[in-house]
Amino acid sequence: MSIIWGCHFSFQRTVAKCLREIRDITVEDCPNMKAVIVDEEGRRDEGTVDIIEFPLLNRLTISCCPTEKFFSYPHGKTESITTTSDSQDTYSNSFFDQKVSLPSLEHLGLCSVGSFKRIWHDELPKSSFCELATLTLENCFGLLIVFPSTITRRLHNLKEVKVSNLKCLESLFDCGSFGSTMERKLVLLPKLERVEVRGAGRLKHMVKSDSHMVLGFPSLTKVEVENCSELTYLFPNYTVTTLGKLERLWISKCERMKEVVPKEEGDQSKSEVISFPCLSDLSLQKLDDLICFSSGCSSYDFASLRSLRIEGCCNFGAFIPSPTSVERPLSKMAGEDDEMVTFPNIRSLEIEGPQCKELWNNQIPTDSFRKLKYLGLESCDNLQRIAPSHMWKRLQCCLENLKVISCCSIEIIYEGDGMDIEGGELRSLVLCDLKNLRHIWQSNNLPNIPFPNLRDIETVRWPRLEMVFTTFTVKFLRQIKELMVESCEDMKQIAGHEKAEEATGTTITFSKLTILRLLELPKFKSFLLERYSLKFPCPENCPSLRDLSIVSCGAEPDQALGDWEGHQQARQLLMIFRQLIC
Description:
Elements lengths: L1 E4 L5 E2 H4 L7 E5 L8 E2 L13 E2 L5 E7 L28 E3 L3 E2 L5 E7 L4 E3 L13 E5 L6 E4 H4 L7 E5 L6 E4 L10 E4 L5 E5 L6 E3 L5 E4 L5 E5 L10 H4 L7 E5 L6 E3 L11 E3 L5 E5 L6 E3 L4 E3 L5 E5 L29 E2 L5 E5 L21 E5 L10 H8 L4 E5 L22 E5 L23 E5 L6 E6 L1 H5 L3 E5 L6 E6 L8 E3 L5 E7 L11 E3 L11 E7 L10 H18 L1
Parallel strand pairs: 1-3, 2-4, 3-6, 5-8, 6-9, 7-10, 9-11, 11-13, 12-14, 13-16, 14-17, 15-18, 16-19, 19-20, 20-23, 21-24, 22-25, 23-26, 25-27, 26-28, 28-29, 29-30, 30-31, 31-32, 32-34, 33-35, 34-37, 36-38, 37-39
């Protein structure tokens, strides 16, 4: 049985007791409703326990009822249910009182309901809410605590919690005060899989840390926290040790968060390794005060982490700082202790905003970053280089995509140590707004070009760069598919001399080229040196060529590039002809 309201109607207690078969209650858009169940006459025998039970009710959803403060209106009140008075009701601050039992309720949703401080009374019927699986709260102004200690032990079936726009919320899980004579107890929520908290501006604790109960979430897979400006950390250290199945962790716009995991509590082992064996996606975004992931003494293992994003965290320093370091300057993103953190399976690393000078230290664990496919760096103003030579040796074997944007201190992309390099997996290179960049790589002491498999190159706004590639091989240029060079004031030519060969008359054919854009290059003179003969694909013999653009390049048209305007016109005519005959 399902009942949906669109007016200010409520059950009287005598009627509610007869609805034992009801399974779904949905209340919507009832601006004057104060409660679902009311007792307008307020008749009740002294000393009796008069409990209303909905034994089969599975789903309860209440939305857009701004004056509703109770599920069951307080006994003994004669005040009209439809009152709009702002007077304070001193009977209870809990939405569900001790006189209502919901033993089968699995899904509870409260959206834009009246002001109440707590959802549950401290003395609920024994079996009530023990089957609760999902809880959704939105725009519940006045709510201070979602799960107090009195309800926590009933939540063994809880799977999902979604909380949004709770302006007064202070704690998600509040387990009570820690007593010095009480032993610490571990309480597990064995089925909780997903937690989402958004727009809780006063939230200080996801799990209140000064408790005698340690909450564990052994099945938790996804956590998303956003716009919680007072939150200084995510979970206490003890809770973190139970997150063995966590797969995704996203935290954003929590301005006062200083670290994700706080320091260990006094009696915890300092040598403990905290492992996230299933965590594959970690995103930290727009956390103004974030300094590190954790400043504690534990080591961390991210065995399954594939994607790491650190964006808009301008004060972020070492991911896991060394516990012996007195000062922790913003110098390195990687930990200063090679045993503190490992990333053996990371594929994607995106960093935006931190003002560190280096990304990597000199003692990166040997199994870390060997599978990194994508590296994106943006607005790292103090960053001196992409990677030192020892780290480039590791990246050469795995990195396929590199994007560097607005890192004003970088002068060179690749730094080698003169040792021979076998191969190189980089396929795509995007470089934008690098005002001090002078070289992608220097030819000195490099036996081979560092990126022999590079296919796609995009360069935008390099005011100091005169040449894209100082050295090249014929094979390297022939395999290029996309080349875009734009707004480089000092750019004179694309490539310099052929590596280990000074022959003249070599013809280089760009047979795989699909996109060529040369835009706003006022000093541009030629594609290559004069001794090379270039052959570009024409539209009629290269159907893959789809974009040819040369605009404002040098004082005169570059004759070495051929009749590009003719090629473009011919391509347009060919496309029209194909459309006509098809």
